[in-house]
Amino acid sequence: MANVNVRATKQILLLAREMSDLKAFVYLSTAFAHSPIRSVEEKHYPPPMETDELLSLLTVLNDKKLDSITPSLIDGWPNTFTFTKAIAEDTVLRYGGSMPVCIVRPSIVTSTWNEPIMGWADSVYGPIGLLVSSSLGLLRTIHCHTDKNLDFVPADYVTSCLIAAAWRTSSR
Predict the structure, then answer these.
(1) CA spacing 20 to 30 A to 79: which of 1, 6, 63, 155?
(2) What are 120-154's pLDDT values in tens digits?
(3) Torsion 151-156-158-161 (CA) sign
(4) Are 29 and 162 in contact (CB under 8 A)?
């Protein structure tokens, strides 16, 4: 996760800084990036670890050592995905330089509502698999907290939001 969410984000930002006509840099994060915080607002939060500190660990430690320290590194975060997304958001702000940047935090992305066609999805993993298997009657029960809500958003809504965010960021 760290190589994809943090290292790649830093590398893309460094490349984007060389693009003189770039109007906006939009980073797709997740509503769960700051899951230890009960109520997340539209603002920057300090990362659980600095970008370069995490990247240094990836460079100097082997996979076995990384696996052994991961639980203590991500303490407070439910998984490495949300932990690295929180760091990547900070990476965008630190390495964005003078570029107009913004961060979009959708919740769990599911199949499309209307565009390009209703119900389009590129895989049946994660939430899509859950929805498909339950709608076909293959999954009849699931252990969950009845006082919690699933927070899904259609992929075409997220795409529209990303386009609007790019436009708004470039218009500032």
Answers:
(1) 155
(2) 888 877 788 888 888 899 988 888 888 988 889 99
(3) negative
(4) no
In the numeric block, which tokens belong to residue 57?
């660990």
Instruction: Characterize the bridge pairing of strands 152-154 and 25-28.
Output: unpaired
| The model's pTM | 0.89
Instruction: Give 74-94 pLDDT, tens digit per residue.
Output: 999 999 999 999 999 999 999
Question: Residues 123-147, buried b or exposed e (16+ Cβ, 10 A)?
Answer: eeeebbebbeeeeeeeeeeeeeeee
At 29, list the tokens: 């994060």
Residue 152 parent element (H or E): strand 152-154
